[in-house]
Design a protein that fits this description.
RNA-binding; 35% helix; alpha+beta; globular; seven-stranded mixed beta sheet; six-stranded mixed beta sheet
Length: 1131
RNA sequence: GCGGAUGUGGCGAAAUUGGCAGACGCACCAGACUUAGGAUCUGGCGCCGUGAGGCGUGUAGGUUCGACCCCUAUCAUCCGCACCA
């Protein structure tokens, strides 16, 4: 009877399915254990051998815990919303829902083959309305909550509103700041829009107008962690900064708690470190420096080193800093403007690529050192970021390398405050130096001086302690289709949440996936869905355009003329400037009835930046395009024509747009027939006064990929609940995820977001724990091991006759020996060619070794690893794969074609992926599972190598033969086990249990092999030994274990068997083979009774002839005896 | 530059508290069985050396009776962050 893994595995997989063996109950007398895998994004490429590594590890652990008597929750699902499906839809026209469904089916069948113990009745899909109903609901919880700075936790926004309405928001001391502080009466007098504007500053999910990472190619904004080196993480498209209205999660409010929580979870140091770096907490001080000359306000800087204040030689502020214009002196104005132009011209990517370049410009202004009155020049420079701290720094060149470089570059004198610690060659950021040249801080050690300096600054009222974070609030909206729609309706410029009973807000079906107008997502194209039907619909474009219908050169002109005009105008459209974008952002969302702004809409061949046809109002933003005389004449002609035809024009400068948007909106509003401003601050509107003028509109962006994954571990607990996202009693039972397994790539994205959501839910009392994952295990990446063939190219190829142009591939060894040669003649290669073509050899022999560069080159071509056995190429398979090489000739070494190799990321495009299905078909799931574990420690990255899988397969067959012989059939028996056999068993129990518990699955597999080898040697086929061994094996190789368990006539499933209990008595030995070292070097071993005492052992050791030989008749200097370990004789 | 991790045979790796370095497996070599072998079994397998023996865990030191393991310095590779004041 042979080990027929195909039949066995199929049989048991079906059996487990039919019997719902892996179904888990939410109530049990057993202790609970929650093992979770990071759920996959179902990509079209399917699984490769790298994906299941973590799943196998967690599956083993889940099964192990089950055998050890736990009620184990081990679910699986799909993170099925996301960009790739949508990109694919754009390319192929297939609906994301369709491709996602298909991909999930592929994943599922691949997963099923490996024999995982998931409870599939709990499957979740983030793109399922039944699931995202609760994602939307949770978003509303975030929207309806704020972070209370006193209690350091989330609370309902209603509490805050109540406080504002009854007590207002007044400062504890000092004068109230307009815009920040208000009384209850003032609050109650505010319009909804005004109140909302204030509340948006506190909500945990809020919308704001700010700088975002805009990716033109993807047509969406991205979160900071989705941007890598200035390009998008997915696809590698350029990313630029853009001002847009976006939704955000206030994750910064949780910065400290996210840091603190790391102390209470079992994550790797690397993982914790990554999160800490991302949060980037730093402690320091904000210091106000007066500007020399008086009028200007103070310059606020942030520093972590207030102790170095006497070493400040200059100030640097960000080019975007609001004070730049104000403090720049007349004589420096030109220089500064030149520099600002330069800065603006540089893309994010250029800045990143040229970090080392030192640039900057002096403003002409001086700040004053508050302690010694020293005049400090104020510079602007790119290296100071507007978004961090106060956007201004005090530069201490003797202590900071960047400041040092800057000072050197611009020849700014450097003050030394740290004596000999500063060598004049480079900065020294020490905190240990004793301060000099530092006024009242002289003689103090720097780290002690920090506190003293801050105290003094606080006392003087010009500084205070301040903690800063590098982390920003997380962008939460995407201009995409395939994501959760926001349960939000915009009305009168105010975001209104949907009622809970209206959830889920389902994603409407679309047929095209192109972006909506002007940076909006595809949803904006579905007007039926976007504009709410029970309210006045927006006029159609035709109606809106009616006002312009009678214009000469417009729609009433004859068709051909109109078309030509339009074509000409369209051809001259320009890429909008940053300012125009900002303007557009400001007007486009104002769905003002009978007043819609169009952008670069042609009118009689002119292209105004913006036009409202209904009101015949043109808005021009000065982009600086009209510089030539010709253009100016054109402008004049245009204005004349427009004026004659009843158009009015209003112009804004770029500076107005960027710096004074409220004023712009005010002016714009006045220019419209309403005669009022469009709003007060930014784009917040006087909603109530405008009531009826605005069309309610759904939010058209969708939530990002991490929305659904931030809470999925909770839904698994209670997946079918239609009343709530997860019943509190259920989440109290399952509580935290005990073991979370996944890759490191989610270190700062998903893991931070889900930790934050968990904390919010905890604060709101919806769950009972505030860290989602108790222990995190990161599986290593399985890299691909790519294979190459070497194609020989003769530069004189065209001179060769056709039949001599056959492609020639040379084996790796030949390549290595010849790759550095330029000329074939005289090389080993030359001689080898004789073997495959005497004609070619003769031809080459006629070539001189002069007259042309390089008579040959060698191309490396990737070859599919599946055609390579180790390093040896399967020539026939290769020829079939690349038909253009069907006639190719091969130069062998030792009769084989050996490929070159390189370790790199596993990916389809590199032809180095290995599909688990192939291996499962060939060796079976059990072999595959054990081999993946046997490769090495799970958390380590390693290249995949299929070769070794044979060894594991042989092991399973050898195990099988302990039960059944190919010829004799059944060989297992009911005989009584011997001590030696019991010793093997219990040694194995101990090892397997310990290794499994500590995730050392690779050594556990070794232990199984040793055990089977030993039992084979002992000719042990006894059920007494084999039965417990099968239980040990179940987590690793569940199919064969179940089959043999049943073959042994055991009752029930091995999955429900009791885990064997280790008994140390079987391992007790009377004698031990002691290693005997001479001077620490092992020379021999001696069998000595384990209970022998030191004196006795010493006697035995000294009597040993090997020891005698090494002693050469001398007495030993010393004898070290460690009981049950070793003996060391020092000579 | 900062932070984290890893360096051990031809290869993947093991060594649980400082105590026999290389378990287990791959590859390879020799042999047995066989019509055959990409099946199975037996033996060998760190390097140098015929041998005794010497050397050996990235490199250089140190602590120790004894170091892959602890300490110091240094090099290399991988991962993460990167003008964060």
């Amino acid at each position: 009877m042979e080990y027929n893994f195909r039949t066995i595995e199929q049989k048991w997989q079906q059996h487990w399915k039919d019997n719902e063996t892996y179904k888990v109950s939410n109530s049990s007398s057993k202790p609970k254990y929650y093992v979770l895998d990071m759920f996959p994004y179902p990509s079209g490429a399917g699984l490769h051998v790298g994906h299941p590594l973590g799943y196998i590890a967690s599956d083993i652990y889940a099964r192990f815990k089950r055998l050890k008597g736990f009620n184990v929750l081990h679910p699986m699902g799909y993170d099925s919303f996301g960009l790739p499906a949508e990109q694919y839809a754009i390319e192929t026209g297939q609906h994301p829902a369709t491709t996602t469904e298909k991909n999930i089916a592929t994943f599922r069948s691949q997963l099923d083959k490996i024999g995982f113990c998931y409870d599939w009745s709990r499957e979740v899909r983030t793109s399922d309305p039944k699931y995202y109903k609760w994602t939307q609901w949770l978003f509303l919880q975030l929207y309806n909550s704020y972070f209370c700075n006193t209690q350091k936790k989330a609370r309902p926004i209603a509490d805050l509103i109540h406080k504002y309405a009854t007590k207002g928001a007044m400062p504890k001391s000092g004068a109230p700041i307009p815009g920040t502080h208000f009384t209850a009466d003032e609050w109650n007098g505010y319009s909804t829009a005004q109140q909302e504007e204030i509340l948006a500053k506190r909500r945990l999910a809020f919308s704001a107008y700010g700088e975002v990472n805009w990716c033109e190619a993807l047509g969406t904004v991205l979160a900071n962690d989705e941007v890598v080196n200035g390009v998008s993480e997915r696809g590698g498209h350029p990313v630029e900064k853009k001002k847009m209205r976006q939704w955000y999660l206030r994750i910064t409010a949780y910065a400290d708690r996210l840091l603190e929580g790391l102390d209470r979870v079992d994550f790797s140091d690397a993982m914790k470190e990554m999160q800490k770096n991302w949060i980037g907490r730093s402690e320091g001080a904000e210091i106000d420096f007066a500007i020399d000359g008086g009028e200007a306000p103070t310059l606020k800087v942030y520093t972590t080193r207030p102790d170095t204040i006497f070493g400040v030689d200059f100030m640097v502020i960000a080019p975007e800093h609001e004070l730049v214009a104000q403090i720049t002196t007349a004589e420096q104005k030109e220089e500064i403007e030149k520099y600002l132009t330069y800065v603006k011209s540089r893309s994010e990517r250029e800045r990143m690529a040229e970090v080392k370049q030192i640039t900057g410009c002096f403003t002409g202004a001086y700040a004053l050192n508050p302690f010694d009155g020293r005049k400090i020049p104020v510079w602007i420079a790119e290296y100071v970021l507007a978004g961090y701290g106060t956007g201004a720094i005090m530069a201490v060149p003797c202590g900071d390398q960047r400041d040092f470089g800057f000072a050197q570059h611009f020849h700014i004198p450097i003050t030394n405050i740290i004596g000999e610690h500063y060598n004049g060659q480079e900065a020294n950021p020490t905190k240990e130096a004793i301060l000099e040249n530092s006024g009242f801080l002289n003689g103090m050690v720097m780290k002690d001086a920090m506190g003293v300096a801050i105290d003094k600054l606080e006392e003087m009222g010009i500084g205070k302690r301040k903690v800063n974070y590098r982390m920003r609030d997380a962008g939460f909206s995407r201009q995409r289709y395939w994501g959760e729609p926001f349960p939000i309706v915009w009305k009168d410029g105010v975001a209104y949440p949907l009622d809970e009973k209206d959830l889920p807000l389902e994603l409407p079906h679309v047929d095209t996936y192109g972006p909506g107008p002007e940076g909006e997502g595809p949803l904006a194209n579905i007007t039926d869905w976007v504009n709410l039907s029970d309210l006045t619909p927006n006029p159609s474009p035709k109606e809106r355009g009616a006002a312009a219908q009678t214009l000469p050169g417009y729609m009433n002109s004859n068709t051909d003329e109109w078309r030509a005009t339009i074509a000409n105008a369209k051809a001259h459209r320009h890429k909008p400037t940053k300012e125009e974008d900002a303007m557009w952002q400001a007007v486009r969302n104002r769905q003002i009835k009978n007043c819609k702004f169009r952008r670069q809409h042609p009118i009689a061949g002119f292209i105004p930046d913006f036009v409202c046809l209904e009101q015949k109002l043109i808005v021009e933003v000065d982009g600086g395009y009209h510089t030539t005389e010709e253009q100016q004449q054109f402008d004049e002609a245009r204005e004349k024509w427009l004026a004659e035809n009843g158009f009015r024009m209003i112009r804004f400068t770029n500076d107005e747009i960027l710096g004074q948007m409220p004023i712009v909106l005010q002016k714009l509003g006045e220019a419209l027939s309403f005669g009022e401003g469009l709003g007060e601050v930014n784009e917040t509107l006087k909603g109530e006064e405008r009531q009826g003028e605005w069309v309610p509109r759904r939010e058209t962006s969708t939530m990002p990929g991490y929305a659904g994954s931030s809470w999925y571990f909770l839904r698994y607990m209670d997946p079918q609940n239609e009343q709530t996202f997860c019943d509190r009693t259920v989440s109290d039972y399952w509580s935290q995820v005990d073991l979370y397994v996944g890759g490191t790539e989610h270190a700062v994205g998903h893991l931070l977001y889900s930790r934050m959501w968990t904390k919010v839910l905890y604060d709101l009392g919806l769950i009972g724990f505030d860290e989602p994952f108790k222990k995190l295990m990161n599986q290593g990446m399985i890299q691909g091991s790519s294979r190459y063939v070497y194609l020989l190219n003769f530069n004189k190829n065209e001179d060769l006759s056709k039949e001599l142009q056959t492609p020639i591939f040379i084996s790796e060894g030949i390549y290595e020996k010849n790759k550095n040669h330029k000329y074939v003649k005289g090389t080993e290669l030359h001689d080898l060619i004789k073997e495959i073509s005497i004609e070619l050899y003769d031809e080459i022999s006629t070539w001189g070794d002069y007259g042309f560069e390089n008579s040959f080159t060698i191309n490396r071509i990737r070859v599919d690893v599946n055609f390579v056995d180790g390093f040896e190429l399967d020539i026939e398979a290769f020829k079939k794969w690349r038909v253009e090489y069907a006639d190719a000739k091969f130069l062998f070494e030792d009769g084989k074609y050996i490929c070159g190799s390189e370790v790199e990321k596993m990916s389809k495009s590199k032809y180095n992926t290995v599909n688990p299905d192939v291996l499962v078909d060939k060796y079976g799931a059990d072999t595959f599972r054990m081999y993946e574990m046997f490769l090495g420690p799970v958390e380590m990255s390693k290249p995949w190598d299929t070769k070794g899988i044979e060894g594991v397969h042989r092991f399973l067959r050898k195990l099988w033969r302990l039960f059944f012989d190919d010829i004799k059939g059944k060989v297992w028996n009911d005989e009584k086990a011997t001590d030696a056999e019991l010793k093997v068993l219990h040694r194995t129990i101990k090892k397997i249990e310990g290794d499994t518990e500590s995730f050392a699955f690779n050594t556990a597999v070794s232990a199984f092999m040793m055990c089977v080898n030993d039992l084979t040697d002992l000719k042990c086929n006894k059920k007494e030994i084999l039965s417990p061994l099968l239980v040990l094996l179940t987590p690793y190789a569940p199919h064969i274990a179940e089959e043999l368990w049943n073959a042994l006539e055991n009752s029930g499933s091995v999955l429900n068997a009791a885990y064997p209990v280790f008994d140390g008595k079987y391992l007790v030995e009377a004698e031990k083979e002691y290693p005997i070292s001479i001077n620490g070097k092992m020379r021999t071993t001696i069998n000595i009774a384990t209970d022998a005492e030191e004196t006795e052992v010493k006697e035995i050791v000294l009597a040993n002839e090997v020891v005698q030989k090494w002693l050469e008749g001398n007495a030993p200097k010393k004898i070290i005896f460690v009981k049950n370990k070793m003996v060391n004789v020092v000579v």
